[in-house]
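Researcher: Let's try something more involved. This one mixes different molecule types, so please make sure each is placed in the same coordinate frame as the others.
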Amino acid sequence: MPKFNLGNGFPTGDIARIAVFAALIAALGLPGTLNAFGNAVPITLQTFGVMLAGTILGSWRAAVAVAVLLVLVAAGLPLLAGGRGGLGVFVGPSAGFLLGWLPGAAVTGWIVERGGHHPSVVRLVVACVAGGIGVIYLVGLPVQALVSGISLGKAALLSLTFLPGDLIKAVLASIVTRGTQRAYPDAVPAVHRERLRAGKEG
Amino acid sequence: MNGLTGAYVPGDSPLHRLPAGAKLAGLAALCTVLVLLRAPVAMAVAALVVGVLFAVSGVGAAAAWAQVRPVRWFAVALFVMQVVFADLPSAITSVSRVVLAVALAGLVTLTTRTVAMMAFLERCLSPARWVGLDPFRLSLLLSLTIRSVPVMADLATRVREAQRARGVEWSVRAFAVPLVVSALRHADALGEALSARGLDDHDEGTGHAAP
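Model: All components are placed in one shared frame. Result:
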């Protein structure tokens, strides 16, 4: 047993899920892999991926998945939408929105975890809107205001254009989570936790 | 995708030779200065400093532009908004602050090998061992993620083709549900494979998995 492992906090099953979801968020930003509505609307689906990580992995695993992705981006890998990467994204106007992914994914996961074995669609939508939009904007807007030296109100005005797309993504993420959790019950954070516990005892 | 390579431009300038940690500290300091500067004249001086740094690094104009390019539309929108709601000097200050900060950060990325930056960040993250993420698991997690990006991209392409064949090209649900389910299946199989190789029994002291 590793010395500092609090109750085996990182079983390999979790490492695999975290790595694959971090990679999934990156893949959702690759050009040509997919476009949301045919090829008509060029919106990035990476925040959609962040919401999915929250609803499926649960709070802290989702936050770690986002953290891993951000570390790789900081190291210079072009894993953000449009092949962006490097340190520039962490000092640019949207740096806060990026860092907001961390608490955003965690809050989304936390709300879904409270929903037990069968989180309702309403709960999923609330989780995606609160975590995937509310928390992310809460971190993103002040940073944008600070970086560009404008007032919070003006920063909000600049970001208003992204809100309808984000709302659509939140609803889609909820519907997709619902479908995934029906097809694969282990995609519910509470169910997964129980299975891990049972596996350890058995 | 154009391969998982960073934006690093090989070179032998003093900036290339500086350790990653020093460059990051310098970047943090210069960005703080940029936030504090108010006058357009000060911004002009800052722009000159950034220009000199780029010249010293010898990364070339194309690489420099590629770093700043992502914020170009934001810069235009910000400029217009500041001219309308405030005045020209504050518009110049705001826009140059954003562009210069992004350029400086880009300069660090351009002159630092991805591997060196990753090693530095891994060292910074070593306190994560207190929550069970020891250095071995941390590197496993990072390398597994890098390995999984092309796997997920490939999966997305295949699901997309299947979706096209079924004639439901416009449905996000028909795309994302199979994608996420396949990703989870893949992850859980991967986790079991790692577990079967004894990685759960890994002991921090040995540096590799116990037999």
